[in-house]
Write a structure and sequence with these properties.
The protein has helices at about 15-25, 30-45, 60-75, 80-115. It is about 60% helix and about 0% strand. It has 2 domains: about 10-50; about 55-115, no CATH class.
């Protein structure tokens, strides 16, 4: 049994219509309505859980999509969890590199200061 549908009117540009038509026939979409329903469902499901959160979209190729599918099947790790963990690891790495660089610069500055000869008129 199918669920009842409500007909709505929608105004879109010719460019948006061309993009919409390009998706017909992909991912099981048989017509424009299927594409629009999938887009609305995707938009609503991908909304952040909290108001201050953002959502990002990461395009992945066929190989990565397959690997992420295997990861989910073997370990139950979703592609969202994998992407979130990857971003956290990346940010940690950048912070560590920056901290290390700041320490090197601070040490270099101390060495340079220790080698600087104080002039009489500036030291009292």
């Amino acid at each position: 049994m199918t669920t009842p549908n409500t007909l709505i009117s929608l105004r879109i540009t010719d460019e948006e219509l061309a993009l919409l038509d390009a998706r017909v026939g992909l991912d099981g979409a048989r017509n424009r309505s299927d594409v629009i329903r999938a887009a609305i469902r995707s938009f609503l499901e991908d909304q952040p859980l909290l108001p201050d959160m953002d959502t990002i979209t990461i395009p992945v190729g066929r190989s990565m999509k397959s690997i992420l599918g295997d990861l989910y099947e073997l370990h139950g790790i979703s592609h969202q969890q994998a992407a979130s963990q990857g971003l956290q690891d990346y940010v940690r790495k950048i912070i560590q590199e920056e901290t290390s660089l700041n320490e090197i610069l601070a040490e270099g500055l101390e060495v340079a200061r220790s080698k600087t000869v104080g002039r009489k008129e500036f030291t009292e």
